[in-house]
Amino acid sequence: MNLVDYAHEGTGFPTWHRQLLLWFEREIQVQTKNHTFRLPYWDWRDPSQREILFKKERLGESVDGVVIGDLFTNWTTSCWEDTKGIEYPIPICNPTISSNQVLRRCPNPKLCIKENPNWPSASDVNEAINIEDYDAIAFDRYVNQSKKPSFRNFMEGFVVKSDGCEEDDTLCTPAKSSSMPAVTRKLHNTVHIILGVGDLECSIAFEYQGVMSCVAASPNDPIFINHHAMIDCMLENWIKKNKDILYYPLCEQIREGHRKYDYIVPFMPLYTHHQMFNTSDNFGYECPDLFSTQATIKASTTFVMIVAAVALIMTVF
C-alpha cells in the first residue's frame, strides 16, 4: 500500500489545516444553529496563559495522564486495533478495554505545563513570521539543509541541525544519512510532543501517552482545534506581511496532495491549496497581529466552543 500524507511534512501543511478548521467551524455552526460562532485560538506563547485551558470546567485537567473534567471525564478516543505496521508499532489503544479509551494528555504534568523549557515562545513565533520564503526545496522536513529554513517548515516544527543534535536537545532526532540530517522540533510539533509525551526521550509506554503525540489520534483531544487555530493565525500573519510578493510555490518537486492546484481532501466542498492561501477575511474571520499582542483565549469563548463541539460530536457521530 502506498500511503501519502496530504496534511504534514509538505507545502500544504498550513492550508490543509486551515480547510480542516473552516470545515469543523462550519459543522458546529450547523449543529448549534449559531452561525456567528467562531473557533478560538490558544495563545501558548505566554507562560502565564498556557494553563488557562487545563481546568476541570474547561478542557479538563490531567490526573496521572487521564483527562478529568466537567465535560471530558468520560470522553473516549478512537482506536485502531490493527495498524498493519504501517505507521504505529502497536495499537493506539485496545477498543476491547474501556480503560484504554479514555482521553489522555500530559502524562508528565511537570514537563507538560510548568517546567518544560521547550514551550514555543513569542520570539519563536516572530522568527517564523519573519522568514521570507514560504517553502523551498526539498519541500519536506529537510528544507534548505545547508541554508535557511522556510516559513512552512519552521512553523510546522522541523529545523535541520547540520552539526547534529545538541546534548541537551530532547526534541532532536539524530541524522539517519547525509540526505536525512538531524532535525529538532519547534512550534507546532513541540506543542504536540509536550502534550503527548513531554519530550522525545520520554520512556512512557506507548499506550499511556497523550493522544496529541500521535498523528492519527491527536484530533481526539479538543485542544487540537485551539492549538491549530493558533498555527493558522501564524499563517495569517505571514501572509499579511508578505502580501506584496505572495505566491504558493509551483514546482514539480512538491509531492502529491501538496501541490498548488491539488484539492484539499477529504473535505467538501473542494478547495485547492492555492485558494486557501489567502487572507482570512476572504473566509469570514480575522486573526490578531501576533507582533503587537499577547492576546489570549477567553474563558467564555472556550466554554462555548466546548459545548458546541460536544453537541456536534454527539449529533453527527
UniProtKB/TrEMBL annotation:
Annotated Tyrosinase copper-binding domain residues: 8-25, 221-232
Pfam families membership: Tyrosinase
Entry superkingdom: Eukaryota
Signal peptide annotation: none
MF-aspect GO terms: metal ion binding; oxidoreductase activity
Alphabetized PANTHER family for the sequence: TYROSINASE FAMILY MEMBER, TYROSINASE-LIKE PROTEIN TYR-1-RELATED
Stated name of the protein: Tyrosinase
